[in-house]
């Protein structure tokens, strides 16, 4: 009975979790890529969706193979998903190749013409911490010319900011701040140039927006387990933005979450315990679940996290 009656569209209550989408690649080791993004969304109270752009064969010791998802399949994933699911925020990570980057840009342009999603974070994954280039030159051009103008926040590391601007990497905080401001001319609403690769007792990122530049600092955590910090930060920014009044408070809260995850990383032993013989050369993941473990008291984290502001 009633099977033929049309079902009215469901309505979300005010306390509904933020629905966040990551458009990114798979990291089977779970420290980066969609796996890190979904864990971050969940840890910060959101509901996560994921569109895959590529598969990697990867561990804490590096990437051995990348298989792009065909661009028309990226288009179909996005079209099918967004016809049904209303998105509050989107994070874009690995764009894999020029065709995939174009497919993402086309879908986002259509969506944003209709006013959704309200917040788009672009993590321009182009240069690994090792210095290796991760995107071909034609894909870099699509990212700069088509995706950057669609982003509300872009989050390059120092070498990526330099590639986007066609200059050399910033060597200090002042140069990073200048480059963050220069990036705004390429079209994003805000630019966060990350200072993880600089030295010093603090990890300082430069956030540029219409009102100027602000330096966002967090204590630098002494750990080798930094796999996926960039993915974690950008997805935290995306899922936190709808609950914060502006990008600056959202990015501050995202850095607080990431710093906790870095502080808990040494206690999370992932990598170096498998079948490969010989000494381990990897970088393990940060602990995306640190705040839950801290609240539950199931792990002595050897520090006092302030989870109240997340
Ligand atoms: N040791 C650390 N302690 C605290 N914060 C850090 C540390 N290393 C990096 N960060 C922070 O992590 C975030 C990511 O910065 P980073 O410059 O490492 O980006 P990335 O190179 O894109 O990362 P990834 O290699 O994961 O892609 C920034 O907010 C940065 O300040
Ligand atoms: Mg990165």
Automatic annotation (TrEMBL):
Pathway(s) served: Cofactor biosynthesis; thiamine diphosphate biosynthesis; 4-amino-2-methyl-5-diphosphomethylpyrimidine from 5-amino-1-(5-phospho-D-ribosyl)imidazole: step 3/3
UniProt-listed InterPro entries: HMP/HMP-P_kinase_dom, PM/HMP-P_kinase-1, Ribokinase-like
GO biological process, one term: thiamine diphosphate biosynthetic process
Any one cellular-component term (Gene Ontology): cytosol
GO molecular function: ATP binding; hydroxymethylpyrimidine kinase activity; phosphomethylpyrimidine kinase activity
Keyword field: ATP-binding, Kinase, Nucleotide-binding, Thiamine biosynthesis, Transferase
Pfam family, one: Phos_pyr_kin
Catalytic activity annotation: 4-amino-5-hydroxymethyl-2-methylpyrimidine + ATP = 4-amino-2-methyl-5-(phosphooxymethyl)pyrimidine + ADP + H(+); 4-amino-2-methyl-5-(phosphooxymethyl)pyrimidine + ATP = 4-amino-2-methyl-5-(diphosphooxymethyl)pyrimidine + ADP
Keyword presence, Nucleotide-binding: yes
Keyword Kinase listed: yes
Stored Gene3D superfamilies: 3.40.1190.20
Pyridoxamine kinase/Phosphomethylpyrimidine kinase domain segment(s): 27-268
Functional description taken from the UniProt entry: Catalyzes the phosphorylation of hydroxymethylpyrimidine phosphate (HMP-P) to HMP-PP, and of HMP to HMP-P.
Protein name as catalogued: Hydroxymethylpyrimidine/phosphomethylpyrimidine kinase
Gene name for this UniProt entry: thiD
